[in-house]
Amino acid sequence: MELRQLKTFVTTAKLLSFTKAANALGYAQSTITNQIQTLEAELGTMLFERLNKQIKLTNDGEQLYIYASQILKLTAEAKDQLTSSPLARSSLTIGTAESLCTHRLPEVFQTYRTRYPNVKINLRFDTYNDYQAHLRKNTIDILLFLGVTCSETDLINHVLFEEPMAVVAAPGHPLTEKDQVTPHDISGQALILTGAGCNYRQLFESMLTQAGVKPSSILEVSSIEVIKKFICDGWGISLLPLVAVHQEIAADQLIALPWTGPAFDIKAQLIYHKDKWISPALQAFIDVTFEKLKS
Question: Which domain of life does the UniProt lineage start with (predicted)?
């Protein structure tokens, strides 16, 4: 296998078209076809199904796509490492949570961009379960997320700080009249929660399940800003990072309920794969993050 063949394969797999791949790479279509056929002959398997001028990856093709993407990414990283400037033409793909990105990371990004203006930063928002897969596939370089302390043995975890959480409701909600709110008080209440893969949502639901509590309904919303709007409109209550709602609490638009249930113990964490190559750009980002956020 040659790198040019892998690049042709990955480009074709992304575009699902030999013609579009030829245009993107500046090759004749016959060159694309020949390179794919050579690769299939070497591997002894079909990489694409071809039917009525349409193509799609076979199961073997999907497996090769994962490895080929990693090979090309590592090749690009190697070129970056061997250039005259360690950070020249570098890029980072960072997975993170919306509330961290909005309220905790701006100073980190500003400092990093000031010191290393040539590094391209790509931000990716997803669920923690998806992030673990991305780290293992090397499709993100590093993860900054909120949740219970990561215990995966193949992931390196640095706890940055504890993130205070708040169970919040609109002014006038019946629970705002209580001196204490426990999981049992959530019984029969309407909840507005983050996506199913959100770590602190899973913790909250686990607490309620252990207490034998069933809410009247759950509205799942991926955006914290939309969740806050719905709470203010009286649609229900939610569990959110305190930093994401402190302005609304200060303005009396939301009320932090006096939660006396189990502690949430949510941590902001920096995570990367144990076998991840720590490029100069990535090491610099880790250093800036520790400088600005680590307790």
Answer: Bacteria
Q: What is the pLDDT of residues 112-132, one digit of tens each?
A: 999 999 899 999 888 777 888
DSSP string, 170-221: -TT-GGGG-S-B-GGGGTT-EEEE--TT-HHHHHHHHHHHHTT---SEEEE-
Same fold yes or no, 91-154+267-293 and 165-256: yes
Structural fold of domain 91-154+267-293: D-Maltodextrin-Binding Protein; domain 2 (3.40.190)
Among 165, 90, 112, CA closest to 291: 112
Alpha-carbon span 65 to 62, nearest angstrom: 5
* pLDDT tens-digit readout, 228-284: 999 999 999 999 999 999 999 999 999 999 999 999 999 999 999 999 999 999 999
CATH number assigned to the domain covering 165-256: 3.40.190.10
How high is the pLDDT of residue 129?
A: 76
